Amino acid sequence: MTSRILVVDDDTALAEMIGIVLRTEGFETFFCADGAAAVQEWRAHRPDLILLDLMLPGMDGIEICTRIRAESGVPIIMLTARADTADVVRGLESGADDYIVKPFNPKELVARIRTRLRPGSQPESEMLRIGDLTVDVAAHEVRRGDTAIALTPLEFELLVALASKPQQVFSREMLLEQVWGYHYKADTRLVNVHVQRLRAKVELDPDNPKIVTTVRGVGYRAGAVV
Amino acid sequence: MPTASVSVAGRPATWRDGAWWRARAERVATLWRRSLRFRTVVITLVLTAVTIIVACVWMALAIQSDLFESRKTQALTDARRAVDSAQTTLDNAVVQDDPVQVQNLLTSIQGPLSQQSATDMTLAIRVDATPSQLAPPGFRSGGLTESMISAELRKHVRDDSSADKQWAQSIALPGSGDTVRPGIVVGQQIVVPDIGPYELYLAYDLDDAASTLSFVQATLWIVGSALVVLIGAIAWFTLRAVTIPIRDAADTSAQLAAGDLGVRLRVRGEDELATLGRSFNAMADSIQSQINQLAELSLVQQRFVSDVSHELRTPLTTIRLATDMLNDHREEFDPTTARAAELLHAQVERFEVLLTDLLEISRYDAGSVQLELEPTSLARLAEDVIASMQQLAEQHGSDVRLVAPGGYSPVDMDPRRIRRIVRNLLGNAIEHGEGKPIVVTVDSNQQAVAIAVRDYGLGMTEADAERVFDRFWRADPSRKRTIGGTGLGLSIAQGDATLHRGTLAVWSQPGRGSNFVLTLPRGPHPVEAGSPLPTDPGEQSADDLGLTQPIAVHGDAGEMGETGGAQ
After folding, report:
1. What's the pTM?
2. Chain B: residues touching A (Cβ < 8 Å)
3. Which of A26, B225, B421, B551 has the most CB atoms less than 10 A away?
């Protein structure tokens, strides 16, 4: 199955070049150069993944990201010229799954896209328990009692990674490798921001987390099954 | 009392102690140095006091001499009148060599002398000292004796026979008890018919004049002292009006210097102090506006750098993607085009690294770097970096070893930046290490953790070592570069170290290699006590390492095992 990717970038040369790279790798691409039209384009095409430039005319990438996240958990990778704290963190907080700093090389881009499109190896058991939650891995569903909790694929994968090895403490680097597919040292803010987003959705009291607990100085681990 | 601290054996210091006086003198000296008001008032007081003392002394002396002169004139006139009257009596008397009559005559003038003059102290002595049956030696009354008259006066009176001539001199008259009263004595001759001249002295009591004088003098001193005190007080209060605004100006300047750009002086009136205030405020306005302008410029520059970053990076991304693609397909091109694609690819990469480094440097310059602090073990970080660069080291034939007696416990640092520093140092060591071993040492003490990267390669001269942190500086421009570098690596490393409040120091000697030591404080305060690792490694050389033997590692066995894994 060919994955379909929406490239939102106002620089047409770059968009075209990304298109060339992605088509060589066997992806199907759509383009949108106008921020204001991006959400519309997304609704029209329903792509499998969005490459989103942060600085766009019309509407900026963070706003687009927030609007799309409100409707869908579709993987979003930000393209940013700035690795500065504020921009990247704001992008991640608005729901982007990952980011790539310009300039990037084609292999890096394709690797990031493939990681987001192909979820990691599934654990053997179909049903996992973490805290007071039930995770149905096959159905991509998380429940607290009878209530389903909507998670993005990334958040789901993060939760599954923790729940599948409840005894293990995951360092940020381990999670980066397992969930984001980084095999070298990457930005641990990715983990921090997404753990916060996940907690906001699954924890009863996000200030006092019981599902994803912090192990100070090391990383995170799954909360005890209740 | 401020002198309590210098007192001996707990006894409070008193004015009897030298220390007390020293402390007092020091306080006054301090006041003199530091208080314009105190100094001015003291100077005013001293000068006024001197002036008033001189004036008072002069006035006292003038009054004294004037009073004396007038009393003297009065005494002379009085004496003349009395003596003239007595002389007339004597001239009209007829004595016929009868001693009794002469005696009576002398006695008879004695009463009128006292009555006519304002004194009853009279003394008459016969000029001719030869004893005579006829002439009585003289007479005296009112306690005036011969011994009280000075020889000098007597000589004058005796020698000058003209009856008009009067002589006066001040004498001390016996007062009640042992006291002495001031007086004046007038001497002249009086001629007794048939017998000859007599010295006649009349003494006048000046006691009333003296008491007038002392009253006047006392008044003068009192008024003088009061004037000095008054002038001192006036100077004190007048100076207050000047020193208080000056103090205000000084305080405000200090506040301004401390960075509070909004402070201004209150300006009242149009006098010199108001002018000072206005000038100061104008200066503060000017400084504030210039600093604001600079801050704005800095902001503009930061924004510009940020914009340039974005604007350059987007086309660079396109170029990068395109060259990567071309490079991947270069086998399909003819050799020339393939080489061109290869060169293009390499140079685009170099350009990218350069751009990244430049932007990093400009961020330091703009002060816009924020550290992402995380508790990190420096020893583990060093292991990781060594492992990741193992391949490169092997290509250069260098054996990288880790010696980590300490530095395992996590310390807050930005691991990305520290990793970048260590990679940079290790990369340099591999490049300049000439295939000799490279030793990475990690250690810690209570204040800091440190990592040293030592190579035994060519090394640098001292002058070169001083410049290694300069931007775009290369030790030897002709040396072949095998590992890409922009010439900004060590500048960035030092910038990162400084951001951590740490230090990056270098030791290097030609032929002995180089040693770079990065020291990071454990807390938020810069390390003062010194790095856990010395910058100068001493006399150790590559041969001493004993290439076949393991390096001695202090610390526990578990740590040793992991350390060994990285070697």
Report:
1. 0.56
2. 306, 309-310, 313-322, 324-325, 328, 352, 368, 370, 372, 374-375, 384, 388, 410, 415-416, 419
3. B421
